[in-house]
């Protein structure tokens, strides 16, 4: 808390109430105003991912009331109208863990796959369960041709050729398996390199459909990777910065938790309450409030949007009235 002292002249008011003011003297009143809200300062340098995660990340930030503004879609510098955020850059997710570890940024959003690939020494503030197309994680997988005799990694031959965008992660993986591998960096389209250029690939997938369409078969999952908020160690040790980061995480995770959910509110007579409550799911339990007089009860609960087409008619059949379905922007546990 901080205090501010101000001097205010109210001659008109004082002429009515104070003899000195009526005689022409000017009275000064000192008001001590105590500020009762925290003063937020711009402390954080934030880096967001460009490329496949860019659109989903910007949509999440806008929904979390942290809209990212920039002059054009190809601009690498941006701003967020939030007092905690001093600087915003948009860079490739492959680079973000290294830059955060080096202290060029306080925090960034990237995938766990790139944290592992770069072996960056960062603090994880938590997962954000979204990816470029779905809420599913991506998987870093080992895949071979559909007609390959190998059905497990242990059946792969020594000296095999591996094409991948994750050379360091792949090198460590095969070394741990005791398999000598010729690791070749891929700049994309790894699935097209089997069998002429590579014997197997290490690639990412959300559903596996693209690999199956290319005639490949997954024989192992090396890593499951969600989008993640990573933080510089020194920045995390600073209590002011850490608190600001945690506040931003509250907004982001609350927004993700609200996705696919709606708030249902309804009224129900006393004799139908148990029947209605048996129908309504909730995060914990429904909120039930008794209405004035003998008006029954008001019930509200959070439900999955994909259940609402079945739930609302069932609630009406059970005796619920005044049923409202409302969108939810954030759910903060």
CATH superfamily of the largest domain: Periplasmic binding protein-like II
Shape: globular
Radius of gyration: 29 Å
* End-to-end gap: 27 Å
The tally of structural domains comes to 4
Q: How many runs of DSSP E, i.e. beta strands?
A: 18
What string, H for helix and E for strand, traces the elements in order? Answer: EHHEEHEEEHEHEEEHEEHEEHHEHEEHE
Biggest sheet: strands, sense, closure? 7 strands, mixed
List the strand order in the largest sheet: 4-5-6-3-7-14-8
* CATH architecture descriptor name of the largest domain: 3-Layer(aba) Sandwich
- What fraction strand? 25-35%
CATH class of the largest domain: Alpha Beta
- CATH topology label of the largest domain: D-Maltodextrin-Binding Protein, domain 2
- The averaged pLDDT comes out at 87
Structural class assignment: alpha+beta
DSSP helix fraction:
25-40%
Number of helices: 11
Residue runs with pLDDT of under 50 for 5 or more positions: 1-37
Task: Break the fold down into its secondary structure elements and pairings.
Blueprint: E1 3-9, H1 11-17, H2 19-22, E2 28-34, E3 44-49, H3 54-63, E4 68-69, E5 77-80, E6 85-91, H4 96-101, E7 107-111, H5 112-118, E8 123-128, E9 138-145, E10 160-164, H6 167-177, E11 181-185, E12 200-205, H7 209-213, E13 216-225, E14 227-231, H8 233-237, H9 239-258, E15 261-268, H10 273-277, E16 287-290, E17 297-304, H11 308-317, E18 321-327
Parallel strand pairs: 3-6, 3-7, 10-11, 10-12
Antiparallel strand pairs: 1-2, 4-5, 5-6, 7-14, 8-14, 9-12, 9-13, 15-17, 15-18, 16-17
